Amino acid sequence: MADIHSVIGTKNKKGQTYTDTWKMMNEAPRTPSFYTGSEVIKEALRRASCDVMIAYPITPQSEAAALIGELFAEGYIGDYFRGESEFAVMSQCAGAAFGGARVFTTTAGPGTMRAMENFPMWSGARLPIQMIVTCRGINSPLSIQPDTLEIAYLLNTGMLVWHAETAQDFFDWILKGYMVSEEPDVHLPLALCCDGFFVTHTKDVVNLTPADMCLPPYDPYRSPVPCMDMECPPVRMMRDPFVMKSNYISYATHASWQQEIWAAVERSRKHSIHWLNGLIDTENTDAEIMIVASGTAVSQGREAIRLLEDEGVRCGLVKVKTLRPWPEEEIREATKNAKHIFVPEFNVTGWLAKEIKATVPNHERVHAGPHVCGGMTMPPEIIVSEIKTALGMKTFSLAGRGS
Amino acid sequence: MSKERIQISEDLYDIMPSDYQDLVKSATYGKEDRGWKDIGTSKELIEQHSLCAGCPESMAFRYILASLPNPEDTVMVGSTGCTSLVFPMVAVHNIHSLFGNQNAIASGLKRALSVRFPGRVKDVVVLAGDGATVDIGLDMTLQAWFRQEKFTTICFDNELYANTGGQESGLMQKGFVAKMAPVGKLFDKVRLPEIARESGCHYVVNCTVSKPSLVEKVIRNAVHIAREIGPTYLQLYTPCILEIGKNSMEGLQEMRDSEKPTERFAYKEYVSEPAKQLLAELAAKDKERKAAAKQLAGQASA
Ligand SMILES: Cc1ncc(C[n+]2csc(CCOP(=O)(O)OP(=O)(O)O)c2C)c(N)n1
Ligand code: SF4
Ligand SMILES: [Mg+2]
Question: Which residue in B has a C-alpha nearest to residue A219's C-alpha?
């Protein structure tokens, strides 16, 4: 059984050097490159020492999933194929992870929903699979447009859920994500979400690590549960299968197993803080008005802050990077001076605002909005308008109401 | 082989459960000609289970586990159903994840093992009920075959959903009155063995588990062909005696009655051309090995 540390400094079959991840991410030189989000996913995967990637087409992740196929053809990925549906793909990912592989997949919108039964199973089985979710609408009539509603469904699966703002986040977090997920005291799947199209289909300058460096390989024997490869004893897992027992021991077993999953989510906190430099980023936390957002709503919030500054209104920002683990303390601390907390979101229900209301004291400070959904963009002006309206300031009115 | 992987540290020997000690002492991992005849003289790879008394699934499990050609490097994949009551007691690694996704799990698993252990044998064997294989999981059953995934699919066909209390399944006989088929099942038993052949399986057998020697033969063939060539499928009748109103002693007779030449579980087999060739090669090697052993024994006694 290969020890990860003994591999560092050696080369893989593509001539890349297995590199200490901290050094690779924080010390190695970076090359600015102008890429789409999909291309950035490919570039991250090139460096991820990934064993198995399983793909299924759905906009807006199809391009990324196909580009990773090219990486496989070039020999960077151990195995790659197109599954028959997202439900099957996520089970195929589970099978590969049970067999000790580092696994990657991508999906979006209806694909996430189709596969949903797998996600609590992944975390229950402690499989550190990484799934990119390039969010899109899940409503009927059919929509392929950006909309983050699907993230709400992932929050209670026991997966780690991170929400990237930019392609740079994506590049870094794909690689760092494996480091957090694969810690033995975590060993949970990661849903790495972004807002489809806005991140996947736009070009941005992204600073890439050297292409001849890659992550150390996954060591499946640093796991809290045995890897299913018959390289370790086939222990008898239980005296009685708990599924059929209606007794206290059975309930207690299931209950403690669930608690352990959520304890592992909690334990991921310290690793996520280490790798992501905190679960949130903040600006102007002394301001009386704060915007708290995740994903591309953060970028729009930043722009709104600039516009408000021009009008003499000072406003701060919290960028929520990890939704699970949830940065409860951090958000409370960052918003403690705020009289108003605005939560702009790309979905109709406002799931992030609900989380924040449940987190901060005096939650009447939380304004759930503005919301856009169904693929609409969120011009910073509507955030500005929402804030000014709440403050009783004069603002432009949206067309169409005749007011 | 690799009993070294299950050795017990001397200091901990006395606190290990006796069934584990027995595995180390006398299980047949790595025995080249292991088979059903080892039952009774060796430690079986299955412990006490909570199936109904006399359920033919338990016989099937015992014969299959005795016959796997390479249990020390075999990983099994199960599904939800009565079989999931047994798998926690099975001494080869096995995966339960969801209901019906077994062939998808096995596809990912087999590929991961091939990536991680190039040039080494790691067999994957799926074992699931008829509901799992034919109804809720049919898509994944067939797609794994279309893709020529190299593992064996075994279906314990008890012609109904036993674990949820005897509901209609696709493999149930037409006309059978069951829960959710209140006026009798309206369509024919799905012809999965034929579908398996058309879907690319290289070895397909439809039979009962009344004869251990037959189970041994088909399991060995199915695993070897899957390892070398492509997907294989075994549909084994394991009647749910509880739901068809039989006593615990009557399972064997039920199987014998249903395997008569005109009955639905009369032995049926399909072997593809490449698989035939492989089986011939294996038989020739086996013959050679036996002859050599005989010669060696002759020399020893001379
Ligand atoms: C998604 C899902 N749907 C339904 C069930 C309920 N369920 C559990 S076992 C089972 C029937 C199993 O039937 P079969 O595969 O024939 O196995 P048997 O119990 O007959 O051996 C069903 C419907 C489930 N566990 N998961
Ligand atoms: S319910 Fe039927 S199939 Fe399940 S254990 Fe009992 S007899 Fe066997
Ligand atoms: Mg059944």
Answer: B116
Give the relative orientation of helices B56-67 and B212-228 as an angle to the nearest 10 degrees.
Answer: 50
What is the least distance, in Å, from the CA of B299 to any CA of chain A?
A: 38
Cβ contacts of A222 within 8 Å, gap of 6 or more: A4, A182, A184
Bridge-partner residues for A81, per DSSP?
A54
As for the ipTM of the complex, it is 0.96
Domain boundaries, chain A: 2-222, 280-390
Query: What percentage of chain A has pLDDT greater than the value 90?
Result: 86
CB contact under 8 A, A97 and B112: yes
Closest ligand, as measured to the CA of B162:
1
Atom of ligand 2 nearest to the CA of B81: 4
Contacts (Cβ under 8 Å, ≥6 apart) of A275: A25, A176, A179, A180
Out of B59, B62, B82, give the residue to mutate to test ligand 2, the one with the largest number of ligand atoms within 8 Å of its CB: B82
pLDDT tens-digit readout, B165-188: 999 999 999 999 999 999 999 999
- Which helix (H) or strand (E) element contains residue A139? none
Q: What is the pLDDT of residue A242?
A: 67
Looking at CATH, the fold of the domain delimited by A280-390 is given as Rossmann fold (3.40.50)
CATH of A2-222, one of 1.10.3210.10, 3.40.50.970, 3.30.1640.10, 3.30.750.24: 3.40.50.970
Give the Å distances, CA to CA, from B217 to B65, B132, B150, B220, B292.
13, 25, 19, 5, 22
Average pLDDT over residues A341-360: 98
Q: Do A87 and B94 touch (CB under 8 A)?
A: no
